[in-house]
User: Fold this.
Amino acid sequence: MKIVELLKASVEKRSEIAESTNAYRVFNGAGDSLPGVTLDRFGGHYQIQFFLQDLMPREHELVDAVREICNPEYLAVKYRLDPGGKALEHPEIKVVLGSDSRTVVQEGNCLFNVDLEDTVNPGLFLDMRDVRIDVENRSAGITLLNLFSYTCSFGVHARVGGAEKAVNADISGKILDKGRENYALNCLECKPGEFFKGNAFEYLAWAKRKGLKFEGIVLDPPSFARFKGFSFNVKNDFQKLVLGATEVLAPGGFLMASSNYSGFELRSFGQNVLATVKTVFPKAKLAWTRSQGADFPGSGSSKDSCLCAAMLTV
Assistant:
């Protein structure tokens, strides 16, 4: 089938999603019959990503189809193939259309800055949209701890949802500055203590010493991280992180734990997190487990499209 026909079909499939957000995945690799290729929409900005070589000979056809069907203001192509031996965190980026890679997108009740030329990730992980909105709906009157906060999207959703405070912890000061910009974009006042530069275990140890408790905690770590001699490996260290978070979780609160590590399986992931939380809260319950949203068909079938997320209540 021609790519333009596949693209028309995938756009139609996402018509309901487009009613509540202008940031979502337009097609998702093999799940939309285009293995190794994804297309993401960020308002009028679009991003094609190649994860496999298979469809690269049809790149021009793909670009022409996006221009015809989506009418983009800006279009970039990212090659996440490591063709020249460079780290995949710094992929080659080719701008096909437009000059300003930055834009603002709307997700439910919130706004976010994105930049399609800012390394591999533009500032908003699309596959966590449904989880962020769920956290927003649970946040009225609470204090949220958002570890591995990246650009603080969970913190923004929590504050928009009525949270008294959202503590965002990340090892990158530059990334936290982007979080502050997202707060400003949503007319949110930055309260004292809402931005912490440092690793998650460091903050959890400090919070435990101080006797701090949080009614909501978000754990969405990368698969690997290094900071000042400290290294984190999600396969080996995730349950230690869950335990540390549980020790500062307030009774009656919630903990959302997630990972994009392809070695995890959704059912066992939720049960393993629940078992760890039960060592502190024996009556803890698993509210839900989920993978990527409806705009990610075929989620879990390839390394570039996988997510395990679990919501626990205590």
